[in-house]
Amino acid sequence: AQRDANEPEFLQAVSDVTESVLPFIRDNPRYQKEKILERIVEPERVVIFRVPWVNDRGEIEVNRGFRVQMNSAIGPYKGGLRFHPSVNLSILKFLAFEQTFKNSLTGLPMGSGKGGSDFNTRNRSDGEVMRFCQSFMTELFRHIGSNLDVPAGDIGVGAREIGYLFGQYKRIKGSFTGVLTGKGSEFGGSLIRPEATGYGLVYFTEEILQNKGDSMQGKKVTISGSGNVAQYALQKSIELGATVVSMSDSDGTIYDEAGIDDEKLAYIMKLKNNHQRIHEYASKYKCEYLENEKPWKIPCDIALPCATQNELNQEDARQLIDNGAICIAEGANMPCTSKAIHLIEESNILYGPGKAANAGGVTVSGLEMSQNSLRFSWSREKVDHKLRNVMHQIHKKCLHYGRTEDGHISYEKGANIAGFVKVAEAMIALGVV
Ligand code: NDP
């Protein structure tokens, strides 16, 4: 911890995992002898680089680029790129560390990584975004490859950015390989990849509810964020018979008591594609707008945080529980603070940790890699079926490792241990590397 003292998000992620995994390691001393925990927290490699580019006014701007190559014991490094002004080494190391366990849980052969830049896509023209992406890839290309490291999207990196990044990689290397996932379906992308994280989140939520003899049908759901994950979590929730009453962005939350239906969702997608703000929704559909607020005060049965890390704190958790929530499942990475997680688990309401609940995105990224290797594309139905099956298997693994002393299931414990075991076994088999 001393070595990483100035990396609070990374320490938070490590401490959350360690809490579940340490007792398990004590019961299995070979993991201790092999120093798996000490090795697994240390990235195999971190690359930090300058990203100079020219804005529309002809001025030079300089951003910082990163790639954290965390663990390649079970496959090539795999994890998204985030473009957001808050990006720093601590945030990317926490995301890469989480990715180790998540990718392991999917059962697919993917190691872990994460990268990105402090570049802000907000209020930038397409031309500026393209020039930035080209400069970013002009350095990143030498560190990635279809058998080495396969980045994808994350906050601020959607279809547009992946297209520009892939275009530049292809141009520099002079070959067409599956080096990025989240590509457009015209140039090697998988069907269902845009939907995968949100759909997977709702499939997983349905699994944990069904395990209690319940379902999404008739439930009132609050969702934060209004980006990729939030949109498709909303779509699948409605499909399974729930009513979704909120969405948000970093400026505020809309509260639509009547429920956001498919037509209203189409409007939100249009807003987002045009880089507009969620408050426009409140004006159009005459619903409440909670400026600078998150959705957690709104009474609901199920809360799905789908925006960013640490967006749901202990007070928010208290409010949700007092309002009768029965389940909180994480679409975002580490949206609940450690104290919030403790409170949720103590209260015995259902908690789906991100590394399990949002693993659908990287699952379909893994399937995109398979399709690229086969030079073939699968139908929507086939990919969706595989996604659903992986989320079912992840749920089973959580049940297997997640039983607590008092007989409850802790999905947090189950996901951390199940994710750990596969990587630890591979690391032991590979020797001290
Ligand atoms: P998008 O960029 O598509 O959307 C992000 C949403 O969250 C936007 O509504 C954004 O609002 C909001 N947001 C971002 N940062 C903040 C902040 N600091 N405070 C408040 N709101 C914020 O990203 P994704 O939907 O792809 O990602 C959302 C979360 O899901 C992230 O935690 C990501 O790591 C995680 N995730 C994503 C996966 C994927 O496949 N895309 C896979 C697994 C996890 P605004 O426009 O105002 O910034």
TrEMBL record:
One of its GO terms (cellular component) is cytosol. It holds the Pfam family ELFV_dehydrog. Transmembrane segments: none annotated. Substrate binds at K78, Q99, K102, G153, S365. Residues 190-431 form the Glutamate/phenylalanine/leucine/valine/L-tryptophan dehydrogenase C-terminal domain. Keywords: NAD, Nucleotide-binding, Oxidoreductase. The active site is at K114. GO terms for molecular function: glutamate dehydrogenase (NADP+) activity; nucleotide binding. GO terms for biological process: glutamate biosynthetic process. The keyword Oxidoreductase applies. The keyword Oxidoreductase applies. The record marks D154 as: Important for catalysis. NAD(+) binds at T197, N228. Homohexamer. NCBIfam families: PRK09414.1. PANTHER family: NADP-SPECIFIC GLUTAMATE DEHYDROGENASE 1-RELATED. Belongs to the Glu/Leu/Phe/Val dehydrogenases family. This is Glutamate dehydrogenase. The gene is gdhA.
